[in-house]
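The methods section describes the discrete structure representation at length, but only in general terms. What matters is that the chain and its backbone geometry are given together, residue for residue. For illustration, here is how one protein appears when written out as sequence plus structure tokens:
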Amino acid sequence: MQQNKTIGLLSLPVLVAALGYFVDIYDLLLFGMIRNNSLLSLGLLGDDAIKTGLKIMSIQMYGMLIGGIIWGIMGDKKGRLSVLFGSIIMYSLANIANGFVHNVLQYEICRFIAGIGLAGELGAGITLVSELISKEKRGIATSIVAGVGLTGAVVAYFISQSFDWRICFYIGGGLGLLLLLLRVSVFESGMYESLKNKEIRKGNIFMFFTNGARFKKYLLAILIGLPTWYVIGLLIQVSDKFGKEFGIKEKIVAGKAVMYAYVAISIADLLIGLVSQVLKSRKKALYIFYAITIVGIVLYFNQYNGTSTGMYAICALMGFGTGFWALFVTMAAEHFGTNLRATAATTVPNMVRGSLPLILLLFGYLQTGMNYSFITSAAITGAVVMIISTTAVFMTEETFGKDLDFIEQ
């Protein structure tokens, strides 16, 4: 195979991938920020609103799980750009439709379809940038994509505070459609083009399960990312409920907690690429950020009779610790050959997102099946997640500086 011409860190493909992820994050986290207001307008209150909100969030994650498989396969069979175009059209239209819902079922359907669309954005963008950039700068480039993209959470928060929840969905859909105009000028990866018309198995997801070594790499790549959605999907998205359980007198606004967390995540995602570059190791950088995450989780469960300021600060610390999303998706891309790379880089993060319902299932079982308290159940769930993920990092192979010009047989 012939290596394609490399691009610079601030080139159009990097910019478009970053802006695509920006819109992705805006749409992905918007529901958590407008959950209470939107469900209130549909007639849900108190615990019913919390339970319904968690259900809708799980349904969106199921959509992302299915979408990750669909878009990943398409990215290897039809090209990285086909996913970048197709996925953004789907989630943009789904978000516009979401602004017209009048009952929970319609809400669930729209979030499910949006979830399918959202699943393709990051994996395809990271795959494209990883194949177009030199291996020496790959980690920094993908960190730029994630760092810029994650600021979408900050914009989502301020938009959610300024407009009615239906308008927020319309804005998200509109941003996505505007992004299509930029996408027209982006070119396909040379690595992919070199094998596009060759008789090679491309995008065959079953290849992950027909070889023991390949399956191990794939499973470990998924398990590495679990702490992100335990922290974001449970501790931060439901921080208003936890605030009451901790006896915090001031009202905790979950959307504000998400905003602070994602400011920290975007900073961390930029830094972790540099840390990995200095250490010349993906794994060592992950260990450092895991340690920060654990410190944040411990502080989170020790804030009885605390303050709202303390809660937001801890959410920011946990967010910083979980700011390894770009690195772990890059590792997923680096593990596999060009004919399976988009499938890996797209399915892995969405398998992690799709694991949130399983995390919530464990959390719920500890409450109802084991009769643990709300807080104790969440703490035990976190301990299980961190043990699994730390073990996965230990067992995975180092991918720093790996040549990506190879195929899976």
User: Anything to note?
Assistant: The chain is about 75% helix and 0% strand. The radius of gyration is 20 Å.
